[in-house]
Amino acid sequence: MSNLDTRILFRPFSIRSLELKNRIVMAPMTRLFSPEGIPGEASAAYYRRRAEGRVGLILSEGTVIDRPASRNDSAIPFFHGDAALAGWKNVIDAVHSAGGLMAPQIWHTGAARYINGWEPDAPVESPSGLDSPGDPRGVAMSEENIADTISAFAKAAADAKRLGFDTVEIHGAHGYLIDQFFWAGTNQRTDRYGGATIKERSRFASEIVSAVRLAVGPEFPIIMRVSQWKQQDYGVRVAETPQQMEDWLLPLVEAGVDVLHCSQRRFWEPEFPEIDGSNGLNCAGWAKKVTGAATISVGSVGLDNDVTNAFAGKGSAPASLDRLIERMEREEFDLIAVGRALMSDPDWVAKVENGNYAALEGFNPAALGELL
Ligand SMILES: Cc1cc2nc3c(=O)[nH]c(=O)nc-3n(C[C@H](O)[C@H](O)[C@H](O)COP(=O)(O)O)c2cc1C
């Protein structure tokens, strides 16, 4: 890798009011270091170190909207209430003081369980009272619950803008609330939020995006994270064809999403390998092609194994960035998110920019236990 030319990663990128110095995004990573839901000084210092380390755009850990059971662990930060928002104000000020830009990832965990079995006081809510197909948990949302949830996402986005964040990411991936609406196996509703087609099941997300757009105005960029895979089932897919992908994602873009963040575990894997002549486009590549929106890709950048290893407490060795450079040269996607490598090493981006590849250490699972 010593001769690798990574300059293509360090071109600026802009969309609406956002002007990034490079193409590297810190992936959102839940850290569980916010006792009582309030991000403290250690969180501000953690994100500031990534800004000092020249990350183009920092996406926060998932932080939850104002609904009674919107989180599945007590150390997940709120994005509502005076104390938590004051904590987030401290975070964004710290990031800005180091020259960084940042979005909160706003989230509702729906009926998804957390590994430690923690339960909120209120019943969990989801489209049809299912964590995964055939696995009941909590209650099915009423139309009033849905309307309140949409308002809570809009309020969180408005607060993000008011606190000074540079953009906002809506978490629509990985089998949490919004994705439980997309997923036919967990959305069995017979009202206008359900239906046999992915276009119908996209309505809840589209209404969230419309409400967020209204709340933040025309200049503030909106990012939405989506994924084919669910933590409940890594093999399941929302869209089996490019047409279904368009039916799923285009309504979101039409409602106001500027950037689609397509989560996959290995960024180089083609989304529809069976389609000849598709040049092996990955999830973000197809999302860009079928919607015309800007996209972020992600998945095992700079590492020799995927994120499921981290969930099993395993580390990863560094891996070459050749494939990433090749994909950026093809303009398959606009931005690339980096997760574990940046959790272990706040200076990962600066090291790549300086060509100091020998100093890249991969992912050390000890990083999960502290805010390095
Ligand atoms: C500890 C941990 C926590 C994560 N939490 C979130 C999260 O809150 N929201 C989210 O969208 N993805 C989350 N992810 C997934 C990452 O954003 C990213 O997609 C994944 O780690 C793959 O990128 P990587 O291979 O560069 O690590 C998490 C990943 C890890 C390792």
UniProtKB/TrEMBL annotation:
Coiled coil: none
Record Pfam families: Oxidored_FMN
Cofactor(s) the record lists: FMN
UniProt entry tagged with the keyword Oxidoreductase: yes
InterPro entries cross-referenced by the UniProt entry: Aldolase_TIM, OxRdtase_FMN_N, YqjM-like
Alphabetical keyword list: Flavoprotein, FMN, NADP, Oxidoreductase
Highest taxon above the source species: Bacteria
SUPFAM superfamilies: FMN-linked oxidoreductases
Ranges of residues in domain NADH:flavin oxidoreductase/NADH oxidase N-terminal: 9-356
Gene3D superfamilies for this protein: Aldolase class I
PANTHER family xrefs: NADPH DEHYDROGENASE C23G7.10C-RELATED (PTHR43303:SF4)
Name recorded for this polypeptide: 2,4-dienoyl-CoA reductase
Source species: Pseudomonas cuatrocienegasensis
Lineage: Bacteria, Pseudomonadati, Pseudomonadota, Gammaproteobacteria, Pseudomonadales
